């Protein structure tokens, strides 16, 4: 880093000295800034950093991370600093920071090493960008892109992505895979009789029941309006019928509470298809054909392709 020649040519002396002009300048910046010497002792910081870690500058200066933070966090900061000193230049990384009062923020560190007159690494300057809001938004968007907001199951796009991977694994390893396609019986009547809002609650109730009945390895997808797909990895036809029956009866035995005196009984029809080297599209299509058969057999029924 080049310093103005009218300043002390030794940057470390300059940074560790009392420099009102430098302090005033960095205090006007809204992002937390700190600087340390080459053994990790804090030389200074700006006001935003004081606010950020909730330590006053006077308590910070002269201490290292082990004296200021809990051991786990201090180790993380120390090894990141060490990595920069071992490989001087610019270091960028993201991570969690915890203030001395315990609140956690997700941040991006931008750190730069600086040298003394002999071109030896003398310390580092760090800037912290608080990206907590951005991370929260990212995880919300990922959640929205992955799950169906009404039922909490995988949405169609994500479900088919996951199942695409599962299908490839099945194909390569010649493993069994069963697909159940479920459709709620006479769902139009629910909407017509009780309104769309109750219809939505019913879909939520059904999805919860399916989730409670599922095994960990089952992949549950809201495929369309009142249609669900369930993929059963490593399950051959005989077991697929047993599992489909388990899903069907779990729902048929339950009733959704509408009011003190009113219960809504819901059933599903289920079509099953099992992997026999056909494409994923065909596998799903066959489950649809079997579902059609189940619908034609009075509903609340399981049919195999
Ligand atoms: N409330 C609500 N209704 C939905 C949603 N998605 C689809 N539906 C309704 O689901 C109903 C499906 O009706 P149909 O395809 O005629 O089938 P059904 O009445 O279930 O009859 P069968 O499938 O033959 O037993 C329609 O009334 C759709 O409006 C949703 O997200 N919320």
UniProtKB/TrEMBL annotation:
**Domain PAS span(s) in chain numbering:** 18-82
Its cofactor is: Mg(2+)
Q: Give the source's domain of life in one word.
A: Bacteria
Q: What are the recorded GO MF terms, alphabetically? A: diguanylate cyclase activity
EC number(s) recorded for this UniProt protein = 2.7.7.65
Please list the GO biological process terms of this entry: cell adhesion involved in single-species biofilm formation; negative regulation of bacterial-type flagellum-dependent cell motility
**Which GO CC annotations does the UniProt entry carry?**
plasma membrane
Record field: catalytic activity: 2 GTP = 3',3'-c-di-GMP + 2 diphosphate
* All copies of domain GGDEF, residue ranges: 175-305
Which CDD domains does the annotation name? GGDEF, PAS
> What NCBIfam families does the record tag this protein with?
GGDEF, sensory_box
Q: What is this protein called?
A: diguanylate cyclase
């Amino acid at each position: 880093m080049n310093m103005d020649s009218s300043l002390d040519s030794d940057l470390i002396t300059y940074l560790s000295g009392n420099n009102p002009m430098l302090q005033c300048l960095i205090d006007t910046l809204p992002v937390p800034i700190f600087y340390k010497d080459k053994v990790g002792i804090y030389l200074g910081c700006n006001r935003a950093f004081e606010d950020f870690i909730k330590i006053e500058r006077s308590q910070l200066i002269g201490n290292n991370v082990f004296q200021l933070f809990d051991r786990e966090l201090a180790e993380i900061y120390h090894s990141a600093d060490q990595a920069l000193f071992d490989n001087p230049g610019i270091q960028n990384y993201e991570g969690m920071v915890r203030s001395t009062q315990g609140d956690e923020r997700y941040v991006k560190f931008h750190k730069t090493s600086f040298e003394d007159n002999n071109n030896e690494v003398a310390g580092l300057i760090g800037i912290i960008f608080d990206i907590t809001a951005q991370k929260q938004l990212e995880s919300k968007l990922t959640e929205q892109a992955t799950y169906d907001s009404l039922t909490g199951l995988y949405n169609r796009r994500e479900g088919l992505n996951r199942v695409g991977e599962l299908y490839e694994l099945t194909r390569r390893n010649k493993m069994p895979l069963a697909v159940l396609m479920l459709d709620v019986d006479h769902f139009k009547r629910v909407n017509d009789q009780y309104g769309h809002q109750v219809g939505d609650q019913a879909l939520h109730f059904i999805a919860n029941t399916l989730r409670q009945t599922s095994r960990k390895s089952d992949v549950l997808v809201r495929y369309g309006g009142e249609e669900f797909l369930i993929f059963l990895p490593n399950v051959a036809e005989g077991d697929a019928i047993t599992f489909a029956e388990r899903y069907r009866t779990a729902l048929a035995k339950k009733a959704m509470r509408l009011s003190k005196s009113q219960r809504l009984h819901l059933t599903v029809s289920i079509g099953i298809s099992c992997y026999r080297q056909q494409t994923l599209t065909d596998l799903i299509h066959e489950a649809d054909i079997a579902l059609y058969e189940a619908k034609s057999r009075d509903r609340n029924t399981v049919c195999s392709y």
